[in-house]
Structures are given as structure tokens and as C-alpha cells.
User: What shape does this take?
Amino acid sequence: MRTSIKYLIFTMACVLFSATAARAESLQMDEITVKGARESSQEESLTIREVRESPARDIGEALKQVEGIDIVRKGAIANDVVLRGQQKDNINVFLDGVRLHGACPSRMDSPSFHFDFAEVEQIKIIKGPYDLANPGGIGGVVNALSKKADKGFGSDLSLTYGSYDMVNASATASYGTDLYDALAGYAFKYSGVPESGNGKRITEIYPATSPNRYKPAAIDSRAYQINTGWTKLGLNPTANSRTEISYSYQDADHILYPYLLMDADYDRTHQLNWTYRIEKVSSLVREIKLQSYWDKVRHLMDDRERFSAVGRPRNYSMQTDANTQVYGLKLNGDLAAGPGTLTTGTDYYNRNWDAINRVAANGYLDTAMIPDVFTDNLGFFAGYELPVVENITLKGGVRTDLTWVNADKPTNKPVSDNEFTTVSGNIQLIWTPIARLEITAGFGSGVRPPDPQELYINSARQQGNPFLNPTRNNEADLGVKYATDRFFIKAAIFNSSLDDYINLVQSGTTRSFRNIDANIWGAEFGSQFALPYDLFLKGSLSYTEGKNDTDGRPLSEMPPLKGTLALRYDVNTWFVEAAGNFANSQDRVDTALNEQTTAGWVTTDLKGGYNYKALSLYAGVYNLLDKFYYTHLSFQRDPFASGVKVPENGRNFYVTAAYKF
Assistant: This one.
């Protein structure tokens, strides 16, 4: 650790001494303006520029640079997002407001995996239960906003090549007029198996006697191959209205997940989205928005690449064939009501989830692991934003949801139908006591019904509990932000009191779910400074701590203290940056679930870039000192977790060329 810190100081010093006295405007100044002036302490954003400057393979990996966000490492790609210690269905993940769900019971295909970041222009994050327009999401919302077509002809080409034969290639073309516009894009991703800091591939993490170890041909096979295509058509019927329809298809093959007992043979994803918006309808109706969407995922996984499949009648000893489908409708409106704005609406979605498991031990008979479950949710909400006085704004609202969950196939559970009626709401006070200083205080109470897996999953390793109650998150937040034209600082502290939190419990060799009372609290700090001589300093810290109040022990799967410090020299046409990243050790673990402690670590990253007219070039090396380490959340539990952690990548290089016109 001392060596890493010394190297970080040395690399930052090199950047300092290389700076010249030249002055130039930079994209970093725009970023300071946007993040400092427009985002509250409960909001974050990530642009496609920030993604392209990194070697991120997916949205989850790109988001981990945001304070308060961590990932669950399952393999080379498809990282699952964790926000302030909340994960799975406690977080809503959307693309343009479209509700996404994966099909795998072990979340191989997490929601953020099902769209490519080449489709995306910006990602917005709301932390806490402050989104009234959508059900669930008691821990927060991640909403990716797709690219839009500008007037005239435009295109966007990008190619990244990196260590382990990693390739990210994408192309987007668009054409727009005042009346209509169209956009189409394609992305290709491929990678060999990454190596960790000890020089071994992540497919070599198993002992030589483990039946879960990979076959020799699979150890150095491809880690994934993904093709994604998308298109969008827009029409402006009148000066104050717009309609869009978009479709995307993703075809992912041969995705290895070393920390699970199986790997994905394929994922096939369809998404269809239609929106209509009309503004300035009347003096009362400021805006009306209508949205309809549909998405479907087909997922097949098995252990054919492992020694556990050797000698079986088929080419695997276990297999799961899973499908999920969602369709939904939303109608929202903004109304002028007194001195403020009333936002109200209704929404409905239906999700079907079916997963069939086959194992050699029972003669490959079909077992309804997720028994063709239908979830219907009908919601209504109303929110009001009121400028109390010149420097104080009050906003809040209430939401009610009716949720029906039905297992359509026979189960061994005493209950196959569940119905939930929930009410949630929030209130926030934004105070600007002096110019450039903003203080936000909020309280939100969000509710999330149990999902189909928690209610009905049926496997030898995990059993559902049909008597679960919805989880309620009563969260208090306090944030402060101070921003000028050249820097911003923001900090936040939060406390979540979780009633009927859905937690795993051990029962012999099988695990199930039960409601407990829990508490999660934490703090975050983010900053960015424009220094003299075109230098920019960026730093962040985040900490989350959870407690199982019912059983009097730490809450499982909580990330430790982590942070980043980066120094950048940027004159708009080119930049260099050195960054140090660290995470503390995590010894607050749930020993009842055999959760393991994790050591702390420090890594160093270097990157640089050059911009000339429409051309951008980026290059960098992450984990410069080839550190061998694990992130704490690399260990996910049943139903198909192997119990072996996956280390992070060792030293890895990348270079990106992007052209936009």
C-alpha cells in the first residue's frame, strides 16, 4: 500500500511539472458548471465522454466512478450496480424510462447489461426514495438517456482496443430536419479472459480438485461476444409536440461467469419504446407525456465449460432456461397550480418471468425454478414543487401502488397468489442561504413488494417465501453543495431505516428469504476544482454501513469506505490525468451467511487524450502497479454462487479512437 501511495504522489508531481502557463477553456469547466450548478446532492450524472475516457466494458463498470456506487463482480462483464448498499430490485434501472429486468435468477444479465453505452448520451442517478413517477426503486434510480439525432447528417464512430484482446466498436448515424429525424447504431464487444494481478486468468481461480473448475479449452476462450443494434425515429407534428419510436436488439454469446456455477450460452434482448410529448397545451396544462414500451429477454446458462459436466449423458450437468418479458404504459402531466407546479400521472406494467432448471441428478426433468410468475403493478402519483420564498423551494408528493403477483405454474408453496397495496411519498426542502450555497434536506418513504424470486424460487439451493411483506425504506437525507464558476464541493449524509427488509437466511443446506428490520447509513463527498495552469483536481469519498437490527449483526454485502483522487492537466485539445483509487478493508460481514472479509487496496491509473476537430484519441493504463485485489462485492450468494471470489483485473491498457461529425 505504501508503494502505491508513493507512486501516486510521484505521478501527480510529474503532471504538475509538465504543466505550462497557457490558458484555454476546457470540457472540464463545462462539467464543473453542469454538476456544480444543476445537480443537487442527491443527484449524479455520467456523460458518454467520461465513459469513453475509461476502459469500462459496460454501464455498471462505468458507474463505479460515481461516489456511492459499487458493483458486483461476476466475470469480465455484466457487472451489477449497487447504490448505497442497495441492490437488485431495490434499485430501478431504466433506459429512457423503460423498465428493464434480467432473466437469470443469479442476475448474470443484470438490467444495465441489456443496453450498450454506445446507445447512451448521459446517465442520471437519483439516490434514495425520491422518484415518484415509478414504482419500487427504494434505494434509487439509474436512468440512461439515449442519443438524439441533431439537424442535418451526423455520425459517431468509436473503436477501443485493450488488454486481453478487448474490443469495443460502435457506429451511429443520424439525420434530422425540423419535421423529422432518424438514428441508427451498431455496437460490437469482444474480449478474451482477463488476468488478475497475480498473472492468472480469472478462469483459473478454482482449486485443481474443484468440479467447478473450467475445462482447459475454456480457460483461455473468449470471455464474451456481444452484438447490439438500435434505431430511433422522431416526428415533430407541431411546434410544441414530438413523438418517438425506438427499437434495439442485443445478441450476447458465450459469457463466462467464474464466480457462478454456470456460464451463459446466450442472451437475446428486444426493446421497443414509444413516447409522445406535447408542451404548452394551455395556461393550465404545461406538458403531457405518454409512453408505451415492451422488452423481452431470453437467457440460457449451463455448466458445459466446467468439469462438473464431464461424463454426463448430455453436455452439461445443470442448465437453466429463463425468459422474462415486460410491457408498460405511463401517462404524466405537468400542471400550473397556484404559485407552483403539480406533476401527476398513472402507470402500469406487467412482467412475466419463467425459468426452467434441469440437472443430471434427477434425470434432466424440467423443474419450475421460477414458476411462470406474472407481476402486475398499477400506480398513481402526484407531486408538487412550490417556491416558498426567493431562496427556499419545497417539493414532495405521494404515490400509491396496487401489485398482484401470481405463479402460473404449480408450486410446492402454500400460497401462489399475492396482492400488495402500498403508499409511499417524500418531501424535500432546498434552501439557498447565500449565493452559490445550497442545502437540501429530505425525507422519503419508499416501498418495494417482494419479487418473484423471493416469493417463489424453487431449487435445491434456494427456496422462496410466499409470506414475505413489502420492504419499506424510511430515509432521511441531508446534503450541502457549494459551487462557483471554477469549483464545486458537495457532501451528503443519509440514514435508511428499513422495515421488513428482505434478507437471506440459512436453513440447513438451503437458503431462503425472510423479513428483518435493518438500518443503512452512510456519507458521500464529491469535489472538482479548476486550479491555475489548466490543472483540475477531483476527489471523492463514500462510506456505507449496514446493520441487521433483528439479529444484532452486520448487514451482508455492504461496501467499505472507498475514494478517488485525480489530478488532470487539460488544455481542451489534450489532457493527461493521474488517479489513485482506494478501498478500506471490510470486516463487517454476516458470518451466519459465511460472508468473508476483504482486504483493503490502492491502485493507480494513468490516462491521456487528444482532440483535433472531430477526432478524439484516448489511451491509458489502469491498475498500473498490477495490484492483486478483490472488491468486497465480488462475492454474491445463492442460488448459483460458487463461493469463490473473482479478483479484479491486473494491469490493463487501452486505446480509443472516436470520430464525430
